[in-house]
Protein: DNA-directed DNA polymerase
Amino acid sequence: MLFERPCAIVDLETTGGHISRDRVTEVGVILIDGERVERFDMLVNPGQPIPPFIEQITGISDAMVADAPPFADIAARLLDKLRGRLLIAHNVRFDYGFLKNEFKRVKLPFRSEVLCTVKLSRLLYPQHFKHSLDSIIARHGIVQAERHRALADADALYQFLQQAIAEHGQQQVEAQAALLMAAPAAPPGIDPEVVEQLPDVPGVYSFYGDDGQALYVGRSDNLRRRVLAHFGAEPRPHKDVRIGEPIKRIEWQETVGDFGAQLQELQLIRALQPLHNLRGRLSQELCSLQLTPLDSGFLTPRIVLASEVDFSRLDTLYGLFRSQKEAKKALADLCAGNGLCQTCLALEKRGARKGACSAFALGRCKGACIGREDADSHNQRLQQALSRLKLQSWPYPGAVAVRETDPVSGQWQEHLFERWCYLGSRREEAAAPQGTPTFDADTYKLLAAFLRKPQPDAELRVL
Structure:
């Protein structure tokens, strides 16, 4: 006996890892009713090609499922077997999510209490670092006929649970399972079904209050985990935002990868102006520094506004600042940290007697203000100090696309840019989205960071 209630240990093989786009290729189930144990498995025609990568792992090919029934043909029978049981799986969100979607496509409601054996293993065996199925099989000496086939993997979980009960006792294992099965602490007023629908994929989410006002926009490589973290169902990230207002609605958008999630997050923050987001808002006073020669031969930084100069077309700018005040502070810090002259940099007005600047008396200026340092020397040190702030010039002749590709399903999404300006995104080859490109600091920083260090499963295409 595993538990006091009827259980179903389930394992699925699929065409990939995306619970919305991919499909089930094999179902393996072990039904447990006290001492009575029933096993069954079946191949399923997914209605779409099985990627070579998946075939290599599972051994299930297109030819093997060609004559297998589609999920619609087995749905009623499978639902009848699973109804009223505790569903147990390794990384249960994966298997449960796939099953819910498959049943939903044939208009059959499916809901079950679930238990994740990954999390159960972590609670029962905290001394071990790895809790993948391969690790559990090796650690517990579980004998398996074959790996990555549905019924064989379900049987490995059955053996693991039997050993865990033998080592820790029925009461201890059930107590730890009860902790894991506690319902997510969704906020009052949110339909629990919405929480159940949260996918384990990259994307962007938004919270709304009583009056429809957007409260917060965030992103994650795992939407479900990140959203639930706000409500205490998962560990909260360090310095996470605190939302005091009641949350009445949750919306989300899936993306192929993290780059698209970051980009979409910026777009939503600007469109919705959520109360608790500061980063990502368009600055009305976006500015930079541009060196201007004086009659004396000294170069001095001049603050230029994005509304006056096309930042996307200049390669003589230093730094991006949200206000002139922020730009002046950055310049003052640069001056103090590099022994530059306050008056030469126009941070301090030169007196009528043209004496030394205030920094010279403190030993922070080499005397350019009183002729002890010539213009060439001061200009060289100024340019060197500013070099780390220099904006990168657009390195391409025209537009480019960052293409993110799901490594399993092959689904892709492209994000188009020209001269650091975001043009739009597309999921199929078509004309580039038309709009009015606008230069902004956050998009520039996002794309520049990608060009320095591309992300996995993403590539740059010059159009």
